[in-house]
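Deliverable D5.2: sample structural annotation.
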Amino acid sequence: MAAGMLAAGLIAGQAQAQEAPRGKRAGDFMIGLGAVGVLPTNGGTLNRGLPLGGSIGASNSASPLLDFTYFFTPNISANLIAATTQHTARVRGTALGDVNAGSLWALPPTLTLQYHPFPNARLSPYVGVGLNVTMYYGFGGAMTPPVNRVRAGTTVGVAANIGVDYEITPNWLANLDVKWIQMEPTISVNRGLSGGVARLNPFVVSAAARYRF
């Protein structure tokens, strides 16, 4: 009977070992594909040039996401996200009422350094901090007269990050990630006749499937 219990224990131990997560290791490289939502918190005013005034805002937007993660150690990784989103701009409470300011595309590559406190766990959270550079392009769309041209300058800002990985298999992981990005472009209206700073400062929320090499 004792021999049978020992054999059963060994079999159970082997099954648990087979099911144990692989965990994160130095040299791991992951590619993720998913979807991202960019949710501006909005703020800032048109306070330069023509006395339009008003608060500047941009719409929420979503797009596909590609990201890359490399582990220097089991606890420390670097992550780069690549996505581009289109937003509708609006200025509320101007001297002319609410004004449509057209649309624009944002390209915000963000590099963060991440700390993973439980690299061997199947459900592995992390925190991070990094740098964002956002470039704006594709200006156009419907504008409220007398607005006929709007441009936004490239921004550089910090990014704060939290997220979690869930190991499905040794090579496949599911990821949920939230970033807050400092994004405050200088706005030029009608070739500089009016302008200001848009404090977009969005939350960037993503879900992705990651493949680990």
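Annotation notes: The first strand starts at residue 29 and ends at 39. The first helix runs from residue 2 to 19.
The annotation will be released with the project's public dataset once the embargo ends.
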